[in-house]
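New to this. Comment on this protein:
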Amino acid sequence: MCEYIPLAFRVARLVLAVLFSDWLPIFNFALQCVALGVLVWYALETLRIRKASQEQAEAVQRPCLTLATAARGYEDAVLDMGGAVGGMIVGSHEGNVALWNVGSGPAINARYRFKPIDPPHAANVACSNGYLQIVLARETFVMPVARKGLQNLQYEVVHHL
């Protein structure tokens, strides 16, 4: 009985060698193609992550200009006095409007324009515009725009960096 076991193993090895010799190279090629696909996918994902992190690093150094605001009086906010809605209004700094750079980078060569939204026909409406050479990060710049001149109308503030 012991003589038949080595013979059975030899026959099994011969059968497996014949069977695997035909499709083993095909299986090996398919496995290499899958590995190449995974490697290409990994390289593309790495490229996407690099671009996203580069954009994020650049965004950290950008300026962000906003109008300096002040809290409205409680009664004015509750009763919607003066046609304004909300709890904040454009703040008055020495009677003028101010820009505040809330970003972490300086705003250089910024232009601004206060454009009225739906002004009354034949009305003399203030359209202030100007140029700011630099507004440092976390700094406030008082613009030569009178806050009183902007009352009673809605304005769109357009600025270009």
About this structure: The helical segments are 4-60, 74-79.
